[in-house]
Amino acid sequence: MSRRWIVAGVAVLMAIGAGGVALSRSNTSSSPPTTPTRAGVVAPESVRVRVQVLNGTRVRGLAHRATTLLRGRGFDVVETGTSSKQTDTTLVIDLSGHPEWAKRVAALFAPARIQTRPDSSRYLDVAVVLGATWRPPAEALHP
Question: Per-residue DSSP letters for 83-107?
Fold first, then answer.
């Protein structure tokens, strides 16, 4: 008789657990994230997006870290350097008239402002001036 109670108790606990999993899945799928995350941002397929990265902070090596991030996501960083002006907020500049490209880049550097400044030279598509509020992702330890 006690064995029946144990089996019944286990069955009830399994049913409760399955119901909890189903409920948690339905709650997470119905509420999409409100801000873009770095995880899903990549360059558009079959397009070469040429990017300039300028360090607008006093933190040495920040442009290099941003270049690594962008190249890892498929963007073509063709120029890096240091901005003559320091800034708090990262500025992403759309130079080629493709606001979607600038939005993708800005999502990697949140919080970031986006501006449009058409450039007839067509050498660069997007320029990034890194601000002090941007925190680069953690780097893997390579001993």
Answer: -SS--SSEEEEE-SS-HHHHHHHHH
pTM of the model: 0.70
Cα–Cα distances in Å, from 13 out to 21, 25, 26, 27? Answer: 12, 18, 20, 21
Ranges of residues in the chain whose predicted pLDDT is under 50: 23-36
Pair of tokens at residue 63: 């442009």
pLDDT on residue 31: 37
